[in-house]
Amino acid sequence: MFRNYLKTTLRHLKRNAVFSFINIAGLSIGLACCMLILLYIKDEISFDRFHKNKDRLYQLTCDRIEKEGTDEKFGIAAMVQGPAFKKEIPEIKEYTRVNSKNLVIKNGDAVFNEQVTWVDDNFFSVFSFPLLSGKPEQVLSDLHSIVITDETALKYFGNTDVTGKTLALEINGKTVPFVISGIAKKPPQNSSIQFNILLPFKYLEQENPDNGWMWVSYPTYFLLNRGANLLAIKNKMAEVYQTQAKSEIDVNHLAGYDNKFVWDLKPFVQMHLDTVYQGTPGASNPIYSYILSGIAIFILAIACMNFINLTIAQSLKRAKEIGIRKVIGSLRSHLIKQFLCESFIICFISFVLATLLAQLVLPVFNELANKRLSLTYLFDFNLIAGFILLYIITAFAAGFYPSMVLSRFSPVKTLYNRKSNHRKNYLANSLVVIQFSLATFLIIATLFIYGQFNFLTKTNLGYNDKNLVAFVADKAIMNKPLMDQYKTEFLRVPGVENVSYKNIGKFGGKTQAGGKEFTADYERVDEDYLRALGVTLIAGRGFSKEFPSDVTNSVLVNETFAKEAGWTNPVGKTVDYMNLPAWGNRKIAVIGVIKDYHYESLKERIKPQLFTEETSLPLGQFLIRIKPVNKVVTLLALEKSYHRLIPDHPFDYVFKDDLNHQNYDAEYKWKQIITFSAAVTIFISCVGLLGLTILSTERRAKEIGIRKVLGASVTQITQLITLGFLKLIFIAFIITIPVSWYTVHKWLQNFAYRVDMSWWVFALAGILAILIASITIGTQAIRSALSNPVKALKNE
After folding, report:
1. What gap in Å lies between CA 723 and CA 726, rounded to an integer?
2. Helices (H), 459-548
3. Phi, psi of 794 (to 5 degrees)
4. Higher confidence at residue 290 or residue 68?
5. For residue 432, which of 759, 134, 735, 704 has the smallest C-alpha distance?
6. pLDDT on residue 270
7. Mind listing the pLDDT tens digit for each residue in 147-189?
8. Is 422 exposed, middle or buried (0-12, 13-18, 19+ CB in 10 A)?
9. Contact 91, 232 (CB under 8 A)
């Protein structure tokens, strides 16, 4: 019997090849999208859950509350908190600190700029990162030991049998040899902590000792004893902090800093999806998982419902087949089994094609989502059981209507085409509204994301970031004469227009000016900084070698600084306090005002900015403007000049405009993902709309035939079929407007500078949705209007 059902199904698919392709393709695409999104979501929620002690691993957090009530949350601490809390709190079994930094690594004559990670020697005991060679408790016990991953071993040595070999690292200007004591497997994709090279944290402590409690920099993790009380630990941490940091707290109060530090512990496995805490490695905004989850559910629901609708639409054309089968003796149970069997076979084909399609598209999806996902992630009992259940429900639902309703048609009525099919299909109409509501929502979202991305990447930043090369000269970080020497050499390179240098890192803090106290960012620059950057000076003068006293007696401020201080004419005013140890009690004169420019991304508002030649800030970053012609030749010449000056360092440069674009990588990727989702949703919705149009024209075939006989034109019949559906699209558009406005408004709040929510964007989205629907409906409507009325009426 099954063999007969299979033959019937294959013949039916072949006879209606185009219709069957559309039907299967719609479900396959929906399922493939769902699979890919499920991969992403499963990966996100699985972060750090592979650790053996995951239930007892916690990350130290800090809530810094300012006296005016504002607070900042950090997922990092200083050097001292880990050892201090471990010593005084018995519930803490182990602690380990993690700090990543770029260093120059030398392997023979080869020189690399590589990210290394400083960790405590119990790192492999606290975390479950597998070692391919070496013992977890010993590999980092020696001060000059180093652990590298298998991929790093292949990169540097060509094989993984490298235990005992040496790599030289440049630390604080000194070349220090480290012996490879172990090989670790590269951390998995779903690990917040990623590393290539591990070094003993105690070496960092020895080289840069710091017992301060206030300058948080290092992610710190605790392994707690079983049954530890988190509230009790939090209270004890507060006591330890108040006791051991008392002198620092008192000094801060005397200096006018009345901020308070609140220490807490958060489950390590939850930190990946918590962006509240600054400094957490690899943190991801959970909103993206929620958005993708919603898209997956809607796409899958629409795809399944479309499959059901199209199956029903197609089955109506088989009414006569059912009548003939009944006349020659087929039982209703046979018809039910046949329709259900056909549905299960077609669904199975769709699921197989969906898997192949997902595998085919996976590399592109990985590129979009910045992941290394594999379909093997789906080999999970719960997910497989869910897909099997989805398969059964979809197949059963798609076959239920034809099997239960069409199978009970009277043979006489079906053969004479006298069945009644004019019932209102509220479910189908509701589906159209839901489908196009989502489609219109995604069109609106896509338009605003494109608009915001173009705004971010094309807005005038207040300086010229084109042809501006940036790189770091590590050897001259605290050496201004050496920086000047390098600058002179770079200016001799043909194709170089301007050369300037500034501090590396970010500095700032409490500042007093104009009788007010506020936070400002500090930049140490040279006298050519404004010219090299292309920034406008709107009042006063800039730094100059003709005024040597500028180094200690003068500063420049931006417009926002002047506004914050309440100055209308800032030149000649004084800055009374800067949060720098070398500042002392000096009052420094403002000699010039710089027009505001976006020195950070457009996600951040321009802050008060102060420019100084203060010698306590570390230099090291060069900004070189080159001519737009022969850029490759100029860069090669710069590299040669760089290697003459710093022969044992790689020349790692970046164009400033590329660096600025990197700030919006997440927006770019989500622009692509939302656009792709919108396209898929629109396609599947149109497939469903096509099915409903076919269903409608099948039901109204005689009505259309009679109207044509009575003189109705093709245009009139097309309008008759089309207008009913377009009303549904218009209702979908009206429903979508408030939802999309609220969602887009909330999303745009993430940007300090953003596009306006113009009404025409919503109107354009509505027009596009109606246009797409009109084309979809119109093709079938015109086809029906052009059909021969005799075929519909000949049996009457």
Report:
1. 5
2. 480-491, 529-533
3. -65, -25
4. 290
5. 735
6. 92
7. 999 999 999 888 989 999 999 998 877 889 999 999 999 998 8
8. exposed
9. yes
